[in-house]
Amino acid sequence: MSKYKNSSLLNDQGGGRQPSLSSGSSVLGISNQLPPNSLFHLFSTNNQQSTTTPTTVTIQPPSSIISTPSPTANIGGIPTTGSSSTSAVGGGTTPTNSNIVVIESNKEDDKECGTILMEINKGIRSGNLGEQIESILFFSHLIKFHPSPLIVNSVITRLSDIFRNTSNTVKYRILKVFQECSSEIHKVSNIDEVLKRIHSVILSNDPIARSLSLRVLGSVPHLIADKLYIHHSIRTCMQSHDQVELEATIFIMDKLCEISPLFSDSIIEKIHTVIQNVETPPITKLKYTRLFRHMHHSHSIATQSKEMLVGLLDLYPSVGFVSVILDTLTNLSLKHILYIDDHIKFLKNYGFSDSRVVVKVIALKCLQKLAIISPHSQFPIIEIFNIIRDTPSKSYREIKYNALLLISILSQSQYTKILELNQTNDNDLIDILYQYSLDYDFKLSELSIQTLVNIIVESTDNNNNNNNNNNNNNNNNNNNNNNNNNNNNNNNNNNNNNNNNNNNNNNNNNNNNNNNNNLIESILNQTVNNICVILKTQFTTSTANNNNENKSSLNKTSIFLKSIIRLIKKDPKPLKPITTTIISLLNEIPYSIIKSLFHCLSMCIPMNKSVLNQNGWFKLILDYLNNLIIKENSVQLINYNDANSNSNSNKNIINGNNRLITNGINKQDCKYSIPMSIFMCIYKTFDENNQKIQEITEQLLPLIQYILENPKPDQLWSCYNLAQLSQRHGFHKVAMVIYSTLIHKVESECNYLWLKGLLSIATLENEISIFSITTNKNKNTNINNNSKILNQLSNYHTSIVSLKASSQQERSLQFQEDFILLHEKHLFNILNLKSFLLECNDDDDNNNNSCNEILLKRFLSKSLIFRQLEQKYQLLLTIQSKSINYTVPLDTKQILESFIFSCSLIVKLIDLIVINKSINNNNINANGINIHQQKQEQEQRYKQQSQNQELVNYFPLFKYCEFVQKKINQQHSSTITNPISFLNQVLNGLIKIPMVYPSSFYSKF
Fold this sequence. Notes:
Elements: H1 8-11, H2 40-51, E1 74-75, E2 78-79, H3 97-124, H4 129-145, H5 149-164, H6 168-180, H7 191-199, H8 207-218, H9 228-237, H10 243-259, H11 261-276, H12 282-290, H13 299-315, H14 319-334, H15 340-351, H16 357-373, H17 381-390, H18 397-410, H19 415-424, H20 428-437, H21 442-484, H22 489-545, H23 548-553, H24 559-570, H25 575-584, H26 591-604, H27 617-645, E3 661-662, E4 665-666, H28 667-670, H29 676-686, H30 690-709, H31 715-728, H32 732-742, H33 749-773, H34 779-792, H35 795-806, H36 814-846, H37 852-881, H38 890-917, H39 931-947, H40 956-971, H41 979-992, H42 1000-1003
Antiparallel strand pairs: 1-2, 3-4
Helix pairs in contact: 2-3, 3-4, 4-5, 4-6, 5-6, 5-7, 6-8, 8-10, 11-12, 11-13, 13-14, 14-16, 15-16, 16-18, 17-18, 18-21, 19-21, 20-21, 21-22, 21-24, 22-25, 24-26, 26-29, 27-30, 29-31, 30-32, 31-32, 32-33, 33-34, 33-35, 35-36, 36-37, 36-41, 37-38, 38-39, 38-40, 38-41
């Protein structure tokens, strides 16, 4: 039977497995076959007892002494002062069962800890060194299991006593306990005594023992930050000639300099002297030099450290020292913002003037750190571009790469300065970016494209903001002119002059914005052309030459693809030429790169859904899919069967030297995966029309059925993911076909029921979409289709039963159940409202005015239903948002907001009908509410809701509701001639919109 790999869907037996404490497993992950002197059984027993419910002791006082209990204050279940744990004659209090349980549990824990301590002490007193080390090992386990102050204090004190008089092997084991439990040592009450006992070992003659003592103290730096006697001993250890002790000294100095201003001030001169000493080894000097990055606690210390480091540059000009010193100076400058500009000038003067490649690269990397923290500082942009232009191309590409990376970082904040410098230098800067965007080295090319895209995006936003500000200023000036007409003549002249000046300034700003827009437009066009050239040259060349570097550089997180996505989100126009180039190269680019390119397209298609539905591009994509899945998989199937038939042979069927490529598809690249990114592009293109969905589904089903009939390793799990993707975009028939096959390939019952529920949902949604496709003006046909949809709604409850049956304690499906129920109510109420509107049309034809008040009451009841449904969707979204350790996926939030939007829109349209029908009733509705007041409240409520829509929503339901809302705003509520007919059209549109499911619907599985 086929299985999924790395998934709980097919390998899970009845849900998530829990680790068992029997048959060879233990709490610490060690087998129960323990050595006779092992102490692991103590922790295993302790954990098993702690997971069970403590026995409740019931105290029943005699009836003659029972008194009314007085109020007591409990903290954490333990009685405070004034309460008693036992009954007293003449007016005591009777303890509650919960308090008794806590007290009994605490007593059991104390007994267990006491037992463990006794057993550990026996091992420590043993003459066997192995038993001593094993016993000390369990001290850290004891602190982890019982981190109470009493246990921590006794254990750490005991270890400090042992540390003074024991071998270095045991000292090393004690060091590990301190390092593992460093976050709990602050609970020790007599910490000074512990530190003195550890510090006493520093006075020994053994350098290994001294180094272990230093590292123990370095594991708790916050506790020794102000201990002067320890600081003095550390300074003394700096004179040691033992390398191990010296390493430990530098370790504890690094920890202390970071947190202790007192120690930093006392040690800075000593460090400088040691570095300048001729006898100090160069490696030790480098390690001491790195300590200066922590000398930032005061202005005087930071200035002194900076002067010392600059002096060391002249004293030690080698590449190793210069690299460490420049990096240390940069980290020191980042701690003080006032030093950043000076340090940038220093890096420019020192690093750029040095002829050594490594020094220039280090200077550029230091500038990159500064640009990330302080992007608006005074960076030498012209000098950086000169480095890019003047550096030779062959041997110094690392310099060019780091310089372009620095410009890319700065282009997000200093784009205005780059454009200004570009104009003053005859467009040399942008031309350099154009040149390197077409460089044969793809790393340089994608950085140049990223810089150009940053300039385009940021400049467009800036110009839009300036235009808005100018428009606001013009409006304010017009208002001032109107006000001036009502003022005195003397004031009018001054105000008019000011307004004229403001208008001139606004005109100048508009002219500048127009010039910038023209420049940005030209940069945009050239950038798009360069992107298309890169697609044609970089990756097709890599296929021909079998260049693995370029091939592996393009993935879903590539800078090049991220830049394209950012550009398209700002301006969708370039999507068409980029898509044209990608589709024209389908048979020339390797499959691994095609996957990444289509992933990029899937992120951009929501901005322009018609991009694939033109020029026969979809047919080309479908042919590529057919070639990829059917033809190539058939060859792999033959090889796969040959491998299985020859069970005694371990030969590799695919020869590494024979990498056949047919139409750009590499056999080893394909393996057995399904091109999800291509399916994603198709789904996002056609997910707004049920009729289109049905047409595209019929063309995709042969490919899906072929995969299901000839499954390869991992393909079944990919098919399950494809079914989820299909349901999330309204292609329910594809999901139905996949689930109907997978349901027979699972092992556990809960997974079978889960797939059965998903299959029922997919079948139901597919049937509803088929009924909703028929758009006939015949009223009887529409009524018949609506009745068929209503008959199908009861099947939602069958799906819920299957999903609930698959739910277990480790896997909650409450969101899935609530979402399905709300969707069923939403669809049922829409159909119910449609039938009610047909009755209203019949009443209008009969001109029965006596039923007007009854109709108003029924309309108000419908409005109330959709208000309540809107509140339930909002509650579901709120519950998801407030879940602990769970972030609501963006698509889930947008889908729930779409349903909230649709309910609110229906409520508004119903209110318009009520208002129009109540005009003849003296502006009073059926509940006696003033219609004008109701209208104002409705408009105000909807304005507030529209202002709260912060995220851009690309789902079909939301876009349709947004379209209807714009129609209402254009026509105004008072000018809609027949609101009932308008509402009926809106409801027909809502029914025809494909149903999509959020990703959270599958996340708990």
